[in-house]
UniProtKB/TrEMBL annotation:
Residue ranges that the Swiss-Prot or TrEMBL entry lists as coiled coil: none
Pfam family, one: DALR_1
Region (Disordered): 25-47, 228-259
A GO molecular-function descriptor: arginine-tRNA ligase activity
Compositional bias of kind Gly residues: 239-251
Limits of the DALR anticodon binding domain: 461-602
GO biological process, one term: arginyl-tRNA aminoacylation
Top-level division of the source organism's lineage: Eukaryota
The name this protein goes by in its record: DALR anticodon binding domain containing 3
Family matches, as SMART domains: DALR_1
InterPro entries on file: DALR_anticod-bd, DALRD3, tRNAsynth_Ia_anticodon-bd
């Protein structure tokens, strides 16, 4: 009985269900008739490939999970599932496992149906808190460093920040929110002057980047790092003309005479320190003031961290990639990061000047694999805009679209705040919704507009989130008028009333899987093995929200949630309100990872 209670209280998980189904289906693996060891041996598929979760409305009409016939044929002769195995699959239970209602072998394979009433009850009556946060909490410290915000040598400004660089800042901001949700301690680098234009620009986008008073300096750290580098065993001494140097930045090494400046042999550093994957053309780097400032900011960002594991993520555009490698190796030469630091880069002289890369460098007692994430370029056919111009364009288009829809109501602080959030949502979804290996192409023609309708982008997501708020405001007004009673506890409801296919789709495709979606960025930090690249699926939250909004909008346009105030209709209405209340919280939780506050009314 205690075990049953534990199973009932455990949140339902797709991964746990697939794993349990795979274990039940594999059972005792039967050999091929007449086979011995060698060519006749049966090759068994990986457990996670035996089943897959359905997601399309069409397939969900007759199955929720499918083990394809090709998989069954690898396990059993002629794909015939033994009765004992079938019984084991259909009676499956376990912690986090979705309840099974039935299944059968058809031409496409073994299809399985979930006990949907029990699943609705488990999620909605049991409370959705566990479905709106990562499945587990992680430990560790992550420093997100944006080279685009460091002086080079001049401080950055919105009018000089490129769209590719803006993408790196938004990516770092999103990653920070995701990692914090998983329990990581997160800090950002560099610290910006609080009265700087770039800090105000980031605030306009809803980015809370750390700032310091305008008169704050990091001079003491810079002087200390300068002295450390001057006494470094990697310092080049007595170099004459003709020495190949990487100090000029970029991929083209230059020939320059030594004029007495401080030079560090970067190639010697990464070879002796075992730093794998660095550009082999890294040679001797002349240490400039802005390099020391960059190192001092990194030193500051890690100074107060007490965790045993510290990971530094350098989020940089590929045009600055070579330069950021210099900084990383210089930081190692200065004595920071006392464990192995590795990275990999695009091939020398590769044509990826507008790509984005995320480098991972770790200082800890234990070694983590060092990776980088490469994103495609930001293209604006027919135009060239800075980040500041892009923000102003989208803000103007958003205000114009709002005025066309709502007329004279679009005025005052409330609407200013709405337009600010909607503009930020538009920009974030435009730059973060694309798979990182693909380019982002923006339509920035001034005669265009930002539509408040249509199943795409941040505006569509925010609009549908607002529709949920409007629904519950309408319900509350009905309660005040005595039309409806208060929503009862889920344990008092009969969830068999949720028969609309859109209702199961919203639960099965969004509410149940969301927790595992939140786990992914932290899991990527644990990725080990070959190569220096890491595939962090930074686009998934945006895509998840857009897909959710499409399916919710379709359901909401089709179903009348607040029906006539008749007692015999209340059970179905309350079941739907429980589902939609959970969806509202799901929207809030997902938008929080993008640092977007929900808008209550549009």
């Amino acid at each position: 009985m205690a075990m049953e209670n534990t199973e009932e209280l455990s949140p339902l998980r797709i991964t746990a269900t697939v794993r349990a189904l795979s274990s039940a289906l594999r059972g005792k693996r039967e050999p091929v008739h007449g086979s011995g060891r060698g060519k006749g041996d049966r090759t068994f598929p990986e457990p996670e490939k035996l089943w897959f979760k359905e997601s399309s409305a069409k397939n969900l009409r007759n199955r929720d999970f499918l083990s394809p016939s090709t998989m069954l044929n690898t396990l059993y002769a002629d794909g015939q599932v033994p009765p004992a195995v079938m019984s084991r699959v259909l009676s499956l239970r376990g912690s986090g496992v979705l309840p099974v209602a039935g299944g059968e072998v058809m031409g496409e394979g073994l299809r399985l149906r979930v006990d949907r009433v029990a699943a609705f009850r488990a999620v909605l009556a049991g409370g959705t808190t566990e479905y709106l946060k990562p499945s587990g909490q992680r430990e560790g410290c992550v420093v997100l460093n944006c080279p685009a915000l460091h002086p080079k040598p001049n401080p950055p400004a919105p009018d000089t920040l490129s769209l590719g660089q803006l993408r790196t800042v938004l990516l770092a901001d999103h990653m920070g929110a995701m990692l914090r949700r998983q329990g990581f301690e997160v800090s950002f680098c560099p610290t910006l002057p609080e009265d700087s234009d770039v800090a105000a620009f980031l605030r306009a986008l809803g980015i809370d980047w750390p700032t310091a008073q305008a008169n704050w300096t990091n001079d003491e750290r810079e002087e200390r790092i300068q002295k450390v580098l001057e006494s470094s065993p990697y310092r080049e001494r007595g170099t004459g003309s003709g020495r190949r140097s990487s100090g000029g930045g970029g991929r083209k090494a230059v020939e320059e005479e030594n004029e007495g400046g401080l030079r560090i042999n970067l190639k010697q550093v990464f070879q002796e320190e075992g730093m794998l994957g660095y550009d082999p053309t890294l040679g001797t780097c002349k240490v400039h003031r802005d390099s020391v400032s960059h190192l001092a900011q990194l030193d500051l960002s890690t100074a107060d961290i007490t965790g045993t594991m510290v990971t530094v993520l350098h989020v940089t555009s590929c045009q600055d990639e070579f330069r950021q490698q210099q900084i990383a190796v210089l930081w190692r030469a200065s004595g920071a990061a006392h464990s192995q630091v590795t990275a990999s880069v695009c091939p020398p002289r590769s044509p990826c000047s507008s790509f984005v890369a995320v480098f991972f460098f770790t200082c800890s007692c234990s070694l983590l694999p060092q990776r980088h994430l490469v994103c495609g370029p930001v293209k604006t056919p027919g135009s060239h805009l800075t980040a500041a111009q892009y923000l102003q364009l989208r803000k103007g288009q958003m205000k114009e679209a709002s005025e066309m829809k709502y007329g004279d109501k679009v005025e005052g602080q409330t609407w200013d705040d709405i337009i600010k959030v909607m503009t930020s949502a538009t920009i974030r979804f435009e730059l973060l919704s694309t798979v990182h290996t693909s380019p982002v192409t923006l339509d920035v023609q001034r005669e265009g507009g930002v539509s408040t309708k249509g199943p795409r982008g941040g505006v569509f997501v925010m609009y549908n989130c607002a529709r949920l708020h409007t629904l519950f405001d309408s319900y509350e007004r009905g309660v005040e008028k005595g039309l409806y009673p208060e929503i009862p506890d889920g344990s008092q409801l009969d969830f068999s009333a949720l028969k609309e296919e859109g209702e199961w789709l919203l639960l099965f495709n969004y509410l149940i899987p969301f927790s595992e979606l939140l786990d992914q960025s932290g899991q990527a930090l644990d990725c080990e093995g070959g190569g220096a690249r890491v595939n962090i699926k930074t686009e998934q939250i945006c895509k998840f929200l857009v897909s959710l909004s499409k399916d919710f909008s379709s359901y909401y346009n089709r179903v009348h949630v607040l029906g006539e105030p008749l007692p015999h209709l209340f059970n179905q209405m309350f079941c739907r309100l429980h589902l939609l209340r959970a969806l509202r919280e799901l929207y809030h939780s997902a938008l929080e990872t993008l640092n977007l506050p929900p808008i209550r009314q549009l």
